[in-house]
Design goal:
Shape: globular
Strand order of the largest sheet: 1-2-3-4-5-7-6
Largest sheet: 7 strands, mixed, barrel
Order of helices and strands: HEEEEEHEEEEEHHHEEHHH
Radius of gyration: 23 Å
């Protein structure tokens, strides 16, 4: 009790939490949930040093982090750094964050790590599209798909809504598990790269390959990567049919078909243009995944129509699907796994129930359910449940259309 009184006195006198001499001794960060009451999700409470605002994606701010349950703090206070993240999504009023802790920690039972992401899902009124995609990839036996949990977020004593706390895509034993050595790369097809990023352009298709891990590899290893992809592109352009044996030199077909069908199923506008990851280790084929960034997929933004082929018209896919035999192999993957794609509909009911009450807080803070003013908000809904039902209906139509139109 004495500590709390001293703390409050320090705040009143200084006006700054970090200047309180007793801050390090506290067991909790302040949380006022009188306007946005507990709704069943864990609450993440973050305070930056001197209450500095997070205004960009480059500046890291020192901060403290704590998890609250219904009535009280349930963890110790952790030191961390926080900054904004995202490309066009960073321009939304509710944006995402990158967290980096001083020490590796486990959050909600997920494996220990220093690096985490808070996804805002502002473009997605169901707030479920990234979650269902990560779970779909796992059900399809992806070697890794980001684990995540829904939370409610407070930053500098301001309620910011429902967020998805998820693992950052990076090379680690319990994440993207490839050798941490020269000649091993984690790569993103990324047309939204920035000038500071390490980027290679493919020789024939001019696809920007953003190197996330392996950027410090030797020049000879980067050249080997570019030569490898160049040989693959040359093969695509100079052959009219593609044998499985030849393709397997460059593509791990199982991982390729998995990622292709997740992108095609969701009609993701970013599919094979942005946020499409693969790994390459010298003398092995490309392994596709993990999946990432689906908040404007599944009928969001520009591609609201659930019918028609989409992802196969872009990038390397356009050449691959010009071959009838390749189409048959791709179709076979869908036929063998179509029940898994259909089962994701059942999961919606569970997550819908989990977010039903928190959504009331979220859309009180961000009243956009009925709005279509943002480029990312194409539909108006009277309730959160209506938004989820719209997603459910879109998925049903999409599955039906794919089943009917396999050639």
């Amino acid at each position: 009790m004495v500590k709390v009184v001293l703390f409050l006195l320090g705040v009143l006198l200084s006006g700054c939490l970090w200047e309180s001499p007793n801050f390090q001794e506290l067991d909790y960060l302040p949380l006022d949930d009188s306007e946005f009451p507990y709704a069943g999700l864990p609450r993440l409470v973050i305070e930056t040093k001197d209450f500095k605002e997070i205004r960009n994606r480059e500046t890291e701010h020192e901060a403290f982090f704590q998890i609250y349950g219904k009535e009280r703090a349930e963890t110790e206070i952790f030191k961390m750094k926080i900054r904004g993240r995202g490309h066009s999504s960073f321009l939304f009023p509710k944006f995402s964050y990158r967290l980096k802790f001083e020490e590796k920690i486990s959050l909600f039972g997920m494996p220990e790590n220093k690096d985490w992401i808070l996804l805002s899902n502002f473009a997605d009124k169901s707030m479920l599209k990234n979650k269902l995609t990560f779970c779909l990839a796992k059900k399809l036996n992806a070697s890794y798909a980001p684990r995540s949990e829904f939370v409610e977020l407070y930053v500098n004593r301001e309620y910011l809504g429902v967020y998805q706390l998820t693992e950052k895509i990076e090379v680690a034993k319990n994440r993207v598990n490839i050798p941490e050595r020269s000649g091993a790369f984690l790569i993103e097809i990324d047309n939204k790269y920035s000038r500071k990023d390490s980027v290679l352009f493919t020789p024939f298709f001019d696809i920007p390959l953003h190197i996330h891990e392996g950027e410090h590899s030797l020049l000879k290893d980067k050249k080997a990567l570019k030569d490898f992809v160049g040989e693959f592109e040359s093969y695509l352009l100079n052959e009219t049919s593609y044998s499985e044996k030849e393709l397997s030199k460059w593509l791990d077909l199982e991982s390729y078909f998995r990622v292709y069908w997740i992108q095609e199923f969701s009609r993701n506008v970013d599919g094979f243009l942005n946020s499409t990851y693969f790994t390459w280790v010298s003398n092995t084929p490309m392994q596709f995944g993990p999946v990432w960034d689906f908040d404007i997929a599944y009928g969001g933004a520009h591609e609201i129509n659930p019918e028609g082929w989409y992802t196969r018209n872009y990038s390397w896919n356009k050449e691959l699907f010009s071959d009838v035999d390749f189409q048959k192999k791709a179709n076979h993957y869908w036929i063998e796994n179509k029940n898994i794609f259909a089962e994701i509909l059942d999961s919606l009911s569970f997550w819908e129930l989990e977010l039903k009450e928190p959504a009331k807080n979220n859309f009180k803070r961000w009243p956009v359910l009925e709005s279509t003013e943002s480029w990312a908000h194409r539909e108006s809904f009277h309730s959160y449940l209506e938004a989820v039902e719209s997603l459910r209906n879109w998925l049903r139509i999409r599955i039906k259309w794919i089943n009917k139109n396999l050639s």
